[in-house]
Automatic annotation (TrEMBL):
<comment type="similarity">
    <text>Belongs to the TRAFAC class translation factor GTPase superfamily. Classic translation factor GTPase family. IF-2 subfamily.</text>
</comment>
<dbReference type="InterPro" id="IPR027417">
    <property type="entry name" value="P-loop_NTPase"/>
</dbReference>
<feature type="region of interest" description="Disordered">
    <location>
        <begin position="51"/>
        <end position="184"/>
    </location>
</feature>
<feature type="domain" description="Tr-type G">
    <location>
        <begin position="366"/>
        <end position="533"/>
    </location>
</feature>
<feature type="compositionally biased region" description="Low complexity">
    <location>
        <begin position="173"/>
        <end position="184"/>
    </location>
</feature>
<keyword id="KW-0342">GTP-binding</keyword>
<feature type="region of interest" description="Disordered">
    <location>
        <begin position="218"/>
        <end position="246"/>
    </location>
</feature>
<dbReference type="Pfam" id="PF04760">
    <property type="entry name" value="IF2_N"/>
</dbReference>
<dbReference type="Pfam" id="PF00009">
    <property type="entry name" value="GTP_EFTU"/>
</dbReference>
<dbReference type="InterPro" id="IPR023115">
    <property type="entry name" value="TIF_IF2_dom3"/>
</dbReference>
<dbReference type="Pfam" id="PF11987">
    <property type="entry name" value="IF-2"/>
</dbReference>
<dbReference type="InterPro" id="IPR000178">
    <property type="entry name" value="TF_IF2_bacterial-like"/>
</dbReference>
<dbReference type="InterPro" id="IPR009000">
    <property type="entry name" value="Transl_B-barrel_sf"/>
</dbReference>
<keyword id="KW-0963">Cytoplasm</keyword>
<dbReference type="InterPro" id="IPR006847">
    <property type="entry name" value="IF2_N"/>
</dbReference>
<dbReference type="InterPro" id="IPR053905">
    <property type="entry name" value="EF-G-like_DII"/>
</dbReference>
<feature type="compositionally biased region" description="Basic and acidic residues">
    <location>
        <begin position="233"/>
        <end position="246"/>
    </location>
</feature>
């Protein structure tokens, strides 16, 4: 019999029968293949008796089970036929109850579920009551076992349900509910596998293969997408696609970037600190004091902006050309991996010495004299200066616009004379008080009609105190009431004796108004200069003194500098006071411009970084950095001096200073209410023993103590003795700032006794303590470098460095008195801390600070010994 005939007989489709035959191990080529008689008999025995039989109960059970466990698969497997029959099952009933609808989506969902179930495949089938059999093409048959059994026993890991859904054959061949036999061993061979299920599986497998082929063929992207369509549901698939696209894009991107460009990208990545990748030019650098931000940045191979940023992070706002704190520079360099070597070159004034050091052979040449005109009010100082300038300067520079620079030079018989334009002894002494000696010769103007007046005497005293020779110009001789002889007499009383009278003082009778004897006066000046043998070497680097300085609108700070040594040139690096820089231009008084100025010439200097003070030394140094260092060190010293500063000379410490050998002479400025008193005082002082120290009255005048008196005292290291007079307010303030000791008396004896006691070291100054502030110790720290530091809270007043000392008080009992070692707010050293703030205090040589201690900050006010 042929296959289709048997199929007809048993009521099956030829196709189904062919499958069954295959399972039975009977190969058939087609539905018309002939079958052996025994095979036909077996088939008939197997299928023929079932015709018309069936148990509703069993059917129900099967349907229910199938619905629970493998509905989708059965639908898929049925392929719409419902022909698969199990023992006692009525295919028709099943088909009617659940109309087969191939639903790919549902299959896919189920497929996922199957995955989960496969993962749980270790669970015995008896527990679930279901058998999941993988499709034969995916199952790895276990030798010696029937296909179904081997499929059921196949390890779940081998199953690839994502690609080929595997309808569990066992679903459709449920074990009887009461059967204790495991489902896998249930006799389910005839209906174990439904052909349509195989078809679905092969379809999926085919899709996979196709996809693989496409991948291999280079159409990776499209194929992957296609494959995904097959195997990935909805959202998951979208995500996967997006990821794939991203990967592809990244890959393209990476391939497009050259190695070099990738490096660049890293370098410019915002978060990467530039400092880590910019290689310093040098491995080690030398740090020198005064190094600017710019110089440091160059040295460490960084952008100045980055260094400035780092400084800002450390709380320092510095510009490019400001010099850096060495410690901080060291830290930054270290951070950048640059080794630092701090060169400690000569600093400050030491450096100044080096800077001023000139190795050339000294060849001093005669230099012009520098003259200052002094005299009493209205005696004609300005008129004389003007007369000289007009006759001499105007003659030379006809039509030239003269500049006011505070000094000018004239020429007579090929020789120059420099006049300082600020007449009067005040300016002269102010300059001297600053340690500047600029004047070589003083022209003392005395009006012939007025004679010697108080300021004439003052001028004499000031000039004498400075050891400057005086040439007397007896002015206004054109006036009918002029009395030259009277003037000479009066001057003789003050030790100015005319040459005509056998003395040494040159006296010239002039008239500023009529311009009489001006040349003679100038000739005398030159003569005196010859006597003085004024010399300087013009080849040296310039050194001078600031005569005056101002802020010019167009030029910035301009200082008139009197060159005293060497030659000042445009472009020279200089240091003046606490400023430094380079000379940009030189302006002479006669107008125009100069490229250089030699000894005794006064020039306006342009290119200053600030306005210096009159009397400051102007020094040309090797380079700008050196200049800057000196300037900074000076500024530091100046600040320190402001904080400390004892009196220059005072009666209180006179004895100590005599002992130290500091003082060999005590200069005195005496001011009294009446001439008689001042003279009496001067005489009494003169009589004091002078073995230890010589007493010298440098000025003895009548009237209140003036600023000029204080200046003279400051310039000469003198003490001012006031007898029945008071200092003018301005003079008192100046005495304070110049630290000049003013002693006021109303009894001559007291003044003498004090001076005597001071000379013998017996004068006991009286001091009164004044508490400036009190701070409570809250906590004590041991700081490695600073030692014991007390974290304090200022209870009242101010804790200040500018104090005489501190006292540690514990339970109202002073336990230590000493000096303040450090005063800090956070990390910064501060000068003072006000009430209500916290601070760190270190007490010099005292480490036994305890919480609860009170630190008193006090100052000792000196009380004038006697009045
Ligand atoms: N007759 C005459 N008058 C003169 C002479 N020199 C100056 N005067 C006059 O004296 C007055 C004062 O002259 P100044 O040159 O201002 O005197 P000073 O010393 O500069 O005065 P202060 O600047 O106030 O200290 C002016 O009115 C001048 O005209 C002179 O040689 N003869």
């Amino acid at each position: 019999m042929r296959v289709y005939e048997v199929a007809k007989k048993v009521g099956m489709e030829s196709k189904e029968l062919m499958a069954e035959l295959k399972r039975m191990g009977v190969p058939v080529a087609s539905h018309s293949s002939a079958l052996d008689a025994d095979v036909v008999a077996r088939l008939l025995a197997k299928f023929a008796p079932q015709q018309g039989l069936g148990g509703a109960g069993a059917d129900d059970k099967t349907a229910t089970r199938a619905g629970r466990g493998g509905e989708g698969f059965r639908q898929e497997a049925d392929g719409g036929g419902g022909h698969v029959k199990s023992t006692g099952a009525k295919a028709g009933a099943v088909s009617l109850e659940e109309p087969p609808k191939p639903d790919k989506r549902r299959i896919l969902i189920k497929k996922k579920k199957t995955e989960e179930e496969i993962e749980a495949a270790a669970v015995p089938a008896t527990e679930t009551g279901l058998t999941h059999a993988p499709p034969p093409d995916l199952a790895h048959p276990v030798p010696g076992l029937p296909a179904t059994e081997s499929a059921a026993a196949a390890p779940p890991a081998e199953v690839k349900p994502d690609i080929a859904p595997s309808p569990p054959a066992g679903i459709l061949s449920p074990a009887p509910a009461e059967s204790p036999v495991p489902a896998a061993s249930v006799e389910a061979k005839p209906a174990a596998i439904a052909t349509p299920a195989l078809d679905a599986a092969s379809e999926a497998a085919l899709a996979k293969k196709k996809a693989e082929a496409l991948f291999e063929g280079g159409e990776a992207k499209g194929a992957r997408e296609k494959a995904k369509k097959v195997r990935k549901p909805g959202r998951e698939r979208d995500e996967e696609e997006a990821r794939a696209r991203e990967d592809a894009a990244r890959w393209d991107d990476l391939r497009a970037i050259s190695v070099h460009r990738r490096d660049d990208r890293v370098r410019h990545a915002g978060t990467t600190p530039v400092t880590e990748i910019t290689k310093p030019r040098k491995k080690g650098i030398k740090l020198t004091a005064g190094m600017t931000v710019k110089e440091f940045a160059e040295a460490v191979g960084q952008r100045p902006a980055d260094i400035m940023k780092k400084l800002m992070e450390s709380g320092q706002m510095l510009t490019l050309n400001q010099s850096m704190n060495l410690e901080l520079a060291g830290l930054i360099a270290e951070e950048l991996g640059v080794k630092v070597e701090v060169t400690a070159p000569k600093a400050g004034e030491e450096l100044l010495e080096e800077a001023a050091l000139w190795k050339g052979e000294e060849k001093p040449e005669p230099r012009p004299p520098v003259v200052t005109i002094m005299g009493h009010v209205d005696h004609g100082k300005t008129s004389l200066l003007d007369a000289i300038r007009q006759t001499k300067v105007a003659e030379q520079e006809a039509g030239g616009i003269t500049q006011h620079i505070g000094a000018y030079s004239i020429e007579l018989h090929g020789k120059r004379i420099t006049f300082l334009d600020t007449p009067g002894h005040e300016a002269f002494t102010a300059m001297r008080a600053r340690g500047a000696k600029v004047t070589d010769i003083v022209i003392l103007v005395v009006a012939a009609d007025d004679g010697v007046m108080p300021q004439t005497i003052e001028a004499i005293n000031h000039a004498t105190a400075a050891n400057v020779p005086i040439i007397v110009a007896i002015n206004k001789i054109d006036k009918p009431e002029a009395n030259v002889e009277r003037v000479k007499h009066a001057l003789a009383e003050h030790n100015l004796i005319s040459e005509a009278w056998g003395g040494q003082t040159i006296m010239v009778e002039v008239s500023a108004k009529k311009r009489q004897n001006l040349d003679l006066l100038l000739e005398m000046v030159l003569l005196q200069a010859d006597v003085l043998e004024l010399r300087a070497d013009p080849r040296k680097p310039a050194k001078g003194t600031v005569i005056e300085a101002r802020l010019d609108r167009g030029r910035g700070p301009v200082a008139t500098v009197l060159v005293q040594e060497g030659t000042l040139k445009v472009g020279d690096a200089y240091v003046v006071g606490t400023y430094s820089g380079r000379v940009r231009a030189l302006i002479p008084a006669a107008g125009g411009k100069l490229t250089e100025a030699g000894p005794s010439m006064a020039v306006g200097v342009v290119g200053l970084t600030g306005v210096p003070s009159a009397g400051d030394t102007f020094l040309v140094v090797k380079d700008e950095r050196m200049a800057r260092e000196i300037a900074e060190s000076r500024a530091q010293k100046q600040r320190a001096a402001e904080l400390a500063g004892p009196a220059k000379v005072s009666l209180d410490d006179l004895y100590a200073r005599i002992k130290q050998g500091d003082i060999k002479e005590l200069a005195l400025v005496i001011k009294a209410d009446v001439q008689g008193s001042s003279e009496a005082l001067a005489v009494a002082i003169d009589k004091l023993p002078s073995e230890v120290v010589k007493l010298r009255v440098i000025h003895n005048g009548v009237g209140g103590i003036t600023e000029t008196d204080v200046l003279l005292a400051a310039a000469s290291g003198a003490i001012v003795i006031g007898f029945n007079v008071r200092p003018e307010p301005k003079a008192a303030a100046l005495a304070e700032s110049e630290r000049v000791d003013i002693r006021l008396y109303s009894v001559i004896y007291d003044a003498i006794a004090d001076i005597k006691a001071a000379m013998e070291g017996l004068l006991e100054p009286t001091f009164k303590e004044r508490v400036l502030g009190r701070a409570e110790v809250r906590q004590v720290f041991n700081v490695s470098k600073a030692g014991i530091i007390a974290g304090c809270y200022v209870l009242e007043g101010t804790m200040t460095r500018a104090s005489s000392g501190v006292r540690v008080v514990r339970d109202h009992v002073p336990v230590y008195q000493g000096k303040l070692a450090s005063l800090r707010r956070f990390k910064d050293d501060v000068r003072e801390v006000q009430q209500g703030y916290e601070c760190g205090i270190g007490v010099e040589n005292f480490s036994d600070l305890k919480a609860g201690d009170i630190i008193e900050n006090f100052v000792l006010d000196r009380i004038a010994a006697k009045l």
